[in-house]
Amino acid sequence: MQIRSADPNRDAAACVEIYTPFVTDSVVSFDEVPPSVEEFAAKIAKLSDTHEFLVAETGNKVSGYAYAGPYRERVAYRWATEVSVYVHPDHRHEGVGAGLYRELLKRLRDKGFRIAIAGITQPNDASMALHMSLGFTQVGIFQRIGFKLGAWQDVAFLQLELAPDAGPPTT
Ligand SMILES: CC(C)(COP(=O)(O)OP(=O)(O)OC[C@H]1O[C@@H](n2cnc3c(N)ncnc32)[C@H](O)[C@@H]1OP(=O)(O)O)[C@@H](O)C(=O)NCCC(=O)NCCS
């Protein structure tokens, strides 16, 4: 397995293929309409500029992706970043998710981000365990914060301090 920065033109279609079932058939994503390849390519380009967008390749095929983006827009939040990861069902339990996140978190740390945040629709044992294994701690659960597939959905929020001993930001 190899991990590299995503290329909007080369990787968008494979990422959409991985993402679409989570939009149409699950509450993992709160999107309701799958993005087009063009929309996803624009998302890769935008987030690569400001944060990070990574893909994992297994045997020359994209087996998963992970990215970071803004948490909230107001300016004092700019050292916080929200992260997400999706692994193709054929490549679960191969270390793809952990590998993507380890590289993503390293790059975010190197860029000066201080807090990584993840929102996880409940229940999702695999995602909770992956985040906890990397040091994330749960800060709370928003009750009934979204409505999808005919039911109200709870979302747990987790955070990881990327540089716990660093003082005030220098950037
Ligand atoms: C969550 C997800 C990204 C994990 O990816 P993965 O590549 O299968 O995970 P890895 O093989 O890297 O496993 C890393 C750790 O995650 C945890 N984990 C992964 N799958 C698990 C499962 N089904 N049950 C419990 N823990 C699990 C384990 O702690 C594992 O460490 P270990 O192998 O040492 O026990 C993957 O299941 C996925 O894409 N799920 C659907 C999308 C999703 O929920 N994304 C997260 C949105 S917040």
Provide an overview of this structure.
With 171 residues, the chain is an alpha+beta fold. It has a domain at 2-116: Aminopeptidase, CATH 3.40.630. The protein is 32% helix and 35% strand. Strands 1-2-3-4-5-7-6 form a 7-stranded mixed beta sheet, with helices on both faces. α1 crosses α2 (37-50). The mean pLDDT is 97. Coenzyme A binds at residues 22, 28, 84-87, 92-98, 118, 120, 124-127, 129-130, 133.
CATH class of the domain at 2-116 equals Alpha Beta
Question: What's the rounded overall pLDDT mean?
Answer: 97
For CATH, the homologous superfamily of the domain at 2-116 is named as Gcn5-related N-acetyltransferase (GNAT)
**Given the helix and strand composition, which structural class is it?**
alpha+beta
Report the major sheet: 7 strands, mixed
User: In angstroms, what separates the terminal alpha carbons?
Assistant: 34 Å
Indicate the low-confidence ranges by residue numbers. Answer: none
In the CATH hierarchy, the third-tier topology of the domain at 2-116 is known as Aminopeptidase
CATH architecture of the domain at 2-116: 3-Layer(aba) Sandwich
- DSSP helix fraction: 25-40%
Number of helices: 4
Q: Write down the Rg.
A: 16 Å
Strand numbers in spatial order across the main sheet: 1-2-3-4-5-7-6
Order of secondary-structure elements: EHHEEEHEHEE
Number of strands: 7
Classify the beta-strand content into a percent band.
25-35%
Shape: globular
Bound molecules: coenzyme A
